[in-house]
Every structure is written in structure tokens, then in C-alpha cells.
Specification:
alpha+beta, Aminopeptidase, four-stranded antiparallel β-sheet, binds zinc ion
């Protein structure tokens, strides 16, 4: 059994590769045409899971039943068995099948150029339009295409390759999707390396292209802060008015940055970007790692948009989102509360996170005090915590993470003509935080759904947006990258 390098494999199969590229576009179009909007309990991912199952089965690829915690909420696991010669656990590609909402009828009025469920390829800009085009039916369609290519052309792998299509990522909690699979079917999704969103898409720093790959992820915790006061008639003076107290909380959280916290992932991200920049700009990004210099850089050197994206990488973020206060125009309520959506830096403990909040609001407000008569006074503010979750904490220097990143870098660098891969910390959330909780495996998780985007289209702005679309050429480029990465990681041979 020979083991040529993967470039040779691709060269031998050039004609077949062109065919799979076209087929991959059609698979993506078909998926976009299926309505899998996450509209709550009645969402239907099963329609897409069944369709993919049909594709796998007609190609003779091993595939699970459509797995549903609840009817309609379909998940699917496909597998190509390796010959085991590498002695390594599986490589897993994963994509969620649900999407955020999009208009079905009045799409023109909402600013869409093409029907979000039409999967139209625009002849002017060469983009395929539709909900899910980048988030993330593209990864599902690419993964299926890689499987079909491997199976049809008798390519052997030295370890198992898995594809896991999941439901319910766009709702908070992934309870019918990744969470359900990890808790109820962990044996089906055992893997050493997982690739899913977010990353692998062209991003530009000072005109230079790079490919961010998520290795760490923040997570959320909901905090309710309640202010108490004596309440009463609104004709009197009320310095302890709970509405005023909650107003001060909201003001502090909205205007002051919480404590500066550097993680290994943030360090590799900012140092990686610095290396791309000319010498006179490089210190700007590197010095963001310094708690003393960061506020000055934010105030004087970054654009508002840059600051908005970078501050969450280095700080816990606490945004007031819902306020409950008062219900009568001439009465001071005796309590008021605010819900705060807190996004935690990965690895920062819950206690430390809450301390960050107390620090900017005023620690003394959370403590009981004594009034002038010696009487004990209850704390001005009370803080409660709901749904704390853990983020994804990985370091680009951990040997297994490093090895996987080097493989991605090698392929991307060669196929892009010299653009690097840079590990990064995601401020939002993905299914990764469930996959890392696998009961028996500790997989390396990478945000990597490759796609090449020309400068001028801001890729992150396409997520959940009007006119979600993917450049067809960039999608085909991503397919080649993903396939070669799989070949490298699985030591493909014929
Ligand atoms: Zn997504």
C-alpha cells in the first residue's frame, strides 16, 4: 500500500475534483432551499438531516439514523472507517443545520437582493445567496462532498473520519443538538480533533490576508442585579430610589471596561496579527496585551469598530439587557432589577468574573452597612447568577493543538499563496463548548470552516445578516482546503 503525498493524490484525481466542486455547490444550494430556521420548538432540521442521510446511503457511506431528542430536531452522524494504522482517534467535521430567521415572502422589502431560500447564484458578483450560506450550511455541504470524494475514489484513511450534523445551535443551549449528542450519544461522536465554526475565512489586517482559527471561546452567564429601597409616594425626596440605583448600575456597566485579562489564546491572536503589520503599526496590537497601555491605545489609536471587536478579547463583558422597574407613575417601587448578559473570558472563574462587575459598580453597594443610629442596613444591591456555563480554554502552545494548527497552516498557506493561519479567541459562542465536555474524550476543537473571501466583503458581517452569501469561487477553494486538511490529518492513501 503506497502513501503518496496528498498533492499527488489531488493531481491524480484532477478531473474528478472538478466534478465534486460542482456537486458541492449543488449540495449547498439544496440545503439552503430547505427551511431550517430556528424558530423555537417547531424548528425542522430533520428535513435536512434526512436529505444528507440519503446522500450518504446512496454512496454506501455508514450513517446513523436521524437522531431526534424531539420530532423534527434531527441530528446525523456519518463515518468513514480508517484502517486504524495511525493508532489515532477520529477526526470529526461538524456543522449545525439550523439557521437564524430570514423572510420567506417579503424579502425584497427587508433588503435582500435574492430570495433567502432561493439559493440563487448572482451572475454579477459570483456569490451564492441564501440563509445558511456561511452560517453554516457551507461546512455541512463541504463535509458531505469530502466524504463522497473519499468513498467514490477508493481513498483509504489511517483513522476514522466523522461528520456530525447537529440541530439547534442558533437557540441558546443547543439542547436538541450538540448538547443532546454529547449527553445521549457520546459513543457516536468520539473524536480526537473536531473542526466546526468559527474560522478559516479570509480576514484582512492592513490589507494582508490571514485565516483566523478559533481555539478558545467565551461563554455566557446571566446575572440579575436587584436594587432595594424604601419606596413610597413620588411627591417626596427618595435618595434610595431603586430605579436610580439600577440606573447607576447600568451606567457603570455600559461605560466602564471591566478588568483587563490576558489569556494564552488572546496573546497568540494579537501577536499573530502584529506579525502581519508593518513595523510602525505592529506595537499597537502587541501593546494591547499591556493593561497600562490598552486604554490609551483604545482611545487614541483604534477605530471605534476595531475597539468594539478587540475589547471583548481582553475583558469580561457585562451588558445590561432587560430592566424591570416600577409600574405606577406616582409611586416609587421598593425594588428594581436589571438582567446583565455577562460574557466570560475563558478560564476566568465565576467568582473572579462577578468581582469584575462589583469592582466597576462599587463593591460597597453589595455589603450591608450601619446607619447613623447604629441600625443595620441591608445591602443596596443584590446579585444573583443564572445558567453559568464554561467556555473553551485551549492554548495554541499545547502540543496537540499546536500540531493540528500547523497542519491547517501548512495547507492554507500553500493554497492561498502565503496567507497564515492565526489562532483566535471567539467572543461569541459555538457548539464547541458542548463538544469539549465529551465524557471520555478530550478533543482538540478548532473553528475551521474554510472559505476565501475577497477584500471588501466583511465576512463576519454576513453572519445572521441580510444578503447572507458566499462567493462560489471562495467556497470551492474552501472545499479543496478542507479536503486536503482531512487527507493530511487522516494520512490518506490509495
Ligand atoms: Zn453558526
Amino acid at each position: 500500500m503506497s502513501r503518496p503525498d496528498v498533492h499527488q493524490l489531488f493531481n491524480e484525481l484532477e478531473t474528478e475534483w472538478k466534478e465534486i466542486e460542482e456537486e458541492a455547490v449543488e449540495i449547498l444550494r439544496k440545503l439552503i432551499q430547505m427551511d431550517t430556521q430556528n424558530i423555537g420548538e417547531d424548528t425542522n432540521e430533520t428535513i435536512a438531516a434526512k436529505h444528507l442521510k440519503g446522500l450518504f446511503e446512496s454512496a454506501g457511506i455508514e450513517c446513523s439514523d436521524v437522531l431526534e431528542e424531539k420530532p423534527g430536531r434531527g441530528n446525523l452522524v456519518a463515518r468513514i472507517r480508517g484502517d486504524g494504522s495511525s493508532g489515532l482517534g477520529a477526526v470529526m467535521l461538524s456543522a449545525h443545520l439550523d439557521t437564524v430567521r430570514a423572510p420567506k415572502l417579503d424579502w425584497k422589502a427587508e433588503g435582500w437582493k435574492h430570495d433567502p431560500f432561493g439559493a440563487v447564484i448572482d451572475q454579477e458578483d459570483g456569490c451564492l445567496y441564501g440563509r445558511g450560506a456561511v452560517d453554516m450550511k457551507n461546512m455541512a455541504a463541504m463535509s458531505v462532498s469530502v466524504f463522497l470524494f473519499i468513498k467514490r475514489h477508493g481513498i483509504m484513511l489511517a483513522r476514522d473520519l466523522l461528520f456530525v450534523a447537529v440541530a439547534d445551535e442558533e437557540a441558546h443551549g443547543s439542547k436538541y443538538g450538540a448538547k443532546y449528542l454529547v449527553e445521549k450519544h457520546p459513543d457516536l461522536i468520539e473524536a480526537d480533533i473536531i473542526m466546526t465554526e468559527v474560522g478559516g475565512c479570509s480576514t484582512y489586517a492592513d490589507g494582508k490576508e490571514f485565516f483566523p482559527v478559533e481555539i478558545a471561546e467565551k461563554t455566557s452567564v446571566l446575572v440579575t442585579i436587584t436594587a432595594n429601597g424604601s419606596g413610597g409616594h413620588s411627591s417626596l425626596f427618595h435618595p434610595d430610589n431603586p430605579i436610580g440605583r439600577i440606573g447607576a448600575v447600568c451606567n457603570a456597566l455600559s461605560t466602564k471596561m471591566l478588568r483587563h485579562r490576558v489569556t494564552p489564546a488572546a496573546r497568540s491572536m494579537l501577536e499573530g496579527i502584529s506579525k502581519l503589520l508593518p513595523w510602525y503599526k505592529a506595537p499597537v496590537f502587541r501593546n494591547l496585551l499591556s493593561p497600562k497601555l490598552e486604554p490609551w491605545i483604545i482611545d487614541y489609536l483604534l477605530t471605534k469598530k476595531q475597539a468594539q471587536a478587540i475589547i471583548p478579547v481582553l475583558h469580561n463583558i457585562a451588558n445590561p439587557t432587560v430592566v424591570h422597574a416600577g409600574d405606577q407613575q406616582n409611586q416609587i417601587p421598593s425594588s428594581a432589577s436589571v438582567t446583565v448578559d455577562v460574557r466570560r473570558i475563558p478560564g476566568c472563574s465565576l467568582d473572579d468574573t462577578l468581582d469584575d462587575l462589583r469592582e466597576v459598580i462599587g463593591k460597597e453597594k453589595f455589603l450591608p452597612s450601619v446607619d447613623s443610629t447604629g441600625e443595620k442596613v441591608a445591602p443596596e444591591l443584590v446579585l444573583e447568577v443564572m445558567f453559568p456555563m464554561e467556555g473553551v480554554v485551549q492554548d495554541a502552545e499545547e502540543p496537540k493543538v499546536k500540531e493540528a494548527l500547523e497542519c491547517l497552516h501548512k495547507v492554507v498557506y500553500a493554497r492561498s499563496g502565503g496567507s497564515p493561519v492565526i489562532p483566535f479567541l471567539l467572543s461569541g459562542g459555538t457548539d464547541m463548548k458542548f463538544f469539549v465536555k465529551h465524557p471520555t474524550k478530550k478533543p482538540v476543537c478548532l473553528g475551521f470552516s474554510p472559505v476565501r473571501i475577497p477584500q471588501g466583503i466583511e465576512f463576519p458581517s454576513l453572519f445572521h445578516a441580510v444578503n447572507e452569501r458566499i462567493p462560489v469561487d471562495g467556497y470551492k477553494w474552501g472545499l479543496g482546503v478542507l479536503c486536503e486538511v482531512v487527507f493530511e490529518l487522516c494520512k490518506a492513501h490509495r
